[in-house]
Fold each of these.
Amino acid sequence: MNVFSHPEFDFHEQVSFVCDAETGLRAIVAIHNTSRGPALGGCRMYPYASDDDALRDVLRLSRGMTYKSALANLDLGGGKSVIIGDPRKDKSDALLAAMGRALERLGGHYIAAEDSGTSVPDLKTMGRETRHVAGIASRTGFDGQPSTGDPSPVTAYGTFIGLKAAVKHRLGLDDLTGLKVAIQGVGNVGFRLARYLRESGAELWVYDVQPDNLRRAVDELGAHVASAEDILALPVDVIAPCALGAVLNDRSIPAIRAAIVAGAANNLLDRPEHDQALQQRGILYAPDFAINAGGIIDVFHERAGSSPETIRAHVDTIGDTLTEIFERADRSGRPTGEIANALAEERFRKHHPASDTAQRPVARAG
Ligand code: NAD
């Protein structure tokens, strides 16, 4: 297994391999860049087929967090951790506690949050051994409602703010009344985004593989049902992918009829060149790691003890960041994903040796 010469290595500051014989814990913690602050990112648990797969995932995701936090103007760096194992079979309190002790040994250079395969209670178990976990405090959230650490409400709000900035930029509209929006995936984030849009007067089309989630959007929000094949190809103003990554690909992009793509799902571009493919078709793409930063903004402010008003004001800046990206893209003729990467690098590059965006993979957050 190559580490320093790994294609995804990209000048990581530290990569730690963690093992605990007693509990069977095997994990990798990757700290990409701490020039803006401690590296914060999710702790994922997944039954990786090989150590190489785990290393590739953690390096890719950790780097993406540097870009996401820098773009959101947070005093945080980028990091990620992966526990190798099946969360349904291999997870135990002892294993989580061992992970907590490993995080403590890193001295706060990396702070863990929940991710796929881990939950807020799991992070609380790790938190018995370390202070370096986040997103677990019960408090008043950005909207004045009780928050238990689930980032979906604030992610949905940030995505709504970003979608409005895209509509303003491309269509010149402040008022969303009558705007046609197709949402792929009406789960935790997608449904809340749908509700914000409905309350603003938008007309909605939805598709979800889970019939219950689909029905909830129809019954509560009066959404129209679309099919799996059509949802991204409808003649609407905006498509909002809020389910899966890699849905902007060779097959979907030629069929898109919307003027704007603005959705919360991570890693929407199947390959970096799909950024340019969208631009060439005249579609305005709101880069995923800019528009879905509400959750990381919220976690940062939980640690800072900020007021709900401060958190909301920070999430509102997602709109300003996107407007800056769109304006730079217009001026330079470059695609928005590339501009977002460059803007993030400006915000963390001070101590980062590499800077040639065009030669490097697109940031992928998770
Ligand atoms: P979720 O699991 O609650 O919702 C996803 C929804 O998509 C579910 O209802 C699921 O049934 C549906 N779905 C799955 N496959 C589908 C398909 N092929 N077509 C249509 N629908 C499908 O997840 P979430 O928390 O709402 O997150 C949605 C996306 O946003 C994910 O990509 C996630 O990584 C990303 N994201 C979420 C957050 C957050 O705070 N939750 C933050 C940043 C990014």
Amino acid sequence: MEKELQVYIDGAYYPKSQAKISVYDHGLLYGDGVFEGIRAYNGVVFKLKEHIDRLYRSAHAIMLKIPLTKEEMTQAVVETLRRNKLKDAYIRLVVTRGVGDLGLDPRKCPKPSVIIITDSISIMSKEAKEKGISAMISWVRRNSVDASTHEIKSLNYLNSVLGKIEATASGADEAICLDKNGVIAEGVGENLFIVKDGKIFTPPSSTGALAGITAQFVIKLARSLGYEVTEFNITPFQLFTADEAFFTGTAAEIVPIREVNKRQIGDGKPGPVTKRLMDAFQKAVADPAEGVPIYQ
Ligand code: PXG
């Protein structure tokens, strides 16, 4: 039998089938905790520093003290990947509030739990990348900045799960959430961009969207290629009538959107700006300077 993947929990390693936490953990009982989804390409953890910084910012916002320094966390991620001999991987970093009682008060949880899962990555299909995906604007509004905002990458993802359920029920590949004012916020686990007259636009974080690390990198790439990129409150009409649209995210990388609520975007095929960015992105992720090497 193949050796099982090892999962890090609070400083120890457990085989995947035995990697468990308590049913009294408030991460389970209340979605009280934070997480990151990270990716390694060819032995390099892409943007690990940025992901760890964001994890600690999310934790700060929910007043959760992570029991490791950022340096220790970085080492733990690299060590977990080494133990599993992974080069191309998906990494899930989770910090839960820890074990408490059946009341929601976090003061009853003295010890947060740190979990690091490293596994093989299920990549988006070649067809999705080549032809683009269909999306639908769902009835589920993005939680606003004064609610359980997705600016915090918390374990409370029901807002996104509901959006996904709605898209699937309607036969679309992915859901798009509006903010409470009716402008585009983001996908359920992706940021969104449109291209109009050669210019690139993406919603601001005031819509409650997460400041995506892929999105920030794509903005940098686009500017280096000479494109103007602006944060803008995009209406559904502006999305329907865009020349091009695409999602960005750790799992999705850059994926073209070919239709939204059955309205074809542009000519219904991935557009030239999207394709140029996808090319530049694929070249850049292999650059060791963009991340932290696992083996050296
Ligand atoms: N918005 C939200 C709400 C997210 O959860 C992104 C944007 C993209 O951010 P990054 O930093 O990855 O560029 C995310 C990221 C999945 C999956 O399985 C994706 C995410 C979270 C959980 C699962 O595709 N999100």
